[in-house]
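quick q for whoever's on today - can somebody do inverse folding on this one?? i tried earlier but teh output was garbage lol. tokens:
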């Protein structure tokens, strides 16, 4: 006897929910490929009657893709989720989820160097009625994300304003830690290394307390702290922090990940300043290979790496 369509749909919904949860467990366990396969299967099993859960699974897939530095894939997945949310009734939970999806979309666009597009996406998240309907915490996250876009664009005063607004209204430890991380990154970008030290250490402390010493959030903070210490000339501690970050990223995602290249770039600078140009060139060349593969040859970050490589080639011994 063939099961009725209603029963088949209900059974598929149960399987989809189980598959989504299994994907999250597999991801936490480091079984990254299996996790992606599970969530893709779950997405296929959800139907139009479970839009909110389908969107949740799409956001999970986009998060996996983003963490694996597949930013264009994440952008496409998030676009699908946003279209579903746009067509759904405007209940408050859906509105908050929509804002979250738009923040994720903007981050994917920013990582691809599409800063104008990312800014427009974030401004759309707080335009018109959404600004009044969205809870405070997602709006804090929007301000934080806009700050990162402005920092990457060199609009440092605007970035500082957005970070201040985000920090003033953040009530979530993870978001607060991210804002401190970004404040450190902004001060570093402006060459204010002493001002960057406290927010960098604060972000690292908060994330370590929330997630443990081997979390990727801790790795990201350690990389920023290492870069700040490098700017201050504290080479020993800088290399310790950068080495810790490097090992976490490699253990989690392998040696060809974008964040591995970020650490290698800073380690290359540290090795150059130690007077070891051969080691510096090895680190910078590897960082360039990874970033070119992930971001493409025309991304702005490639130019920064090429500049540093040219400096090492032209002046093998750094001036004191």
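ok took a stab at it. sequence:
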């Amino acid at each position: 006897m063939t099961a009725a369509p209603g029963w088949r749909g209900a059974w598929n919904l149960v399987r989809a929910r189980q598959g989504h949860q299994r994907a999250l467990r597999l991801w936490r366990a480091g079984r990254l490929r299996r996790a992606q396969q599970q969530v893709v299967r779950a997405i296929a099993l959800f139907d139009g009657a479970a839009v909110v859960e389908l969107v949740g699974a799409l956001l999970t897939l986009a998060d996996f893709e983003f963490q694996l530095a597949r930013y264009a894939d994440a952008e496409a997945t998030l676009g699908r989720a946003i279209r579903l949310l746009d067509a759904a009734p405007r209940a408050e939970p859906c509105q908050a989820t929509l804002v979250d999806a738009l923040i994720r979309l903007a981050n994917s666009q920013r990582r691809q160097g599409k800063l104008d597009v990312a800014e427009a996406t974030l401004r759309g998240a707080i335009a018109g009625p959404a600004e009044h309907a969205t809870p405070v915490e997602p709006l804090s996250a929007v301000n934080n994300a806009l700050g990162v876009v402005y920092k990457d664009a060199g609009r440092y005063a605007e970035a500082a304003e957005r970070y201040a607004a985000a920090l003033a209204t953040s009530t979530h430890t993870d978001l607060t830690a991210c804002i401190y991380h970004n404040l450190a990154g902004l001060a570093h970008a402006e060459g204010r290394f002493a001002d960057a030290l406290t927010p960098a250490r604060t972000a690292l402390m908060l994330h370590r307390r929330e997630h443990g010493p081997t979390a990727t959030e801790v790795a990201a903070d350690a990389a920023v702290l290492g870069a700040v210490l490098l700017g201050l000339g504290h080479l020993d501690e800088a290399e310790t922090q950068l080495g810790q970050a490097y090992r976490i990223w490699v253990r989690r995602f392998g040696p060809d990940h974008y964040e591995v290249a970020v650490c290698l770039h800073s380690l290359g600078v540290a090795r150059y300043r130690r007077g070891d140009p051969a080691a510096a060139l090895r680190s910078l060349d590897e960082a360039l290979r990874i970033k070119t593969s992930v971001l493409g040859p025309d991304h702005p970050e490639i130019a920064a790496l090429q500049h540093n490589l040219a400096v090492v080639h032209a002046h093998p011994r750094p001036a004191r």
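fwiw Confidence is low (pLDDT under 50) at residues 1-5, 128-133. also The longest helix spans residues 5-28. so keep that in mind when u check it
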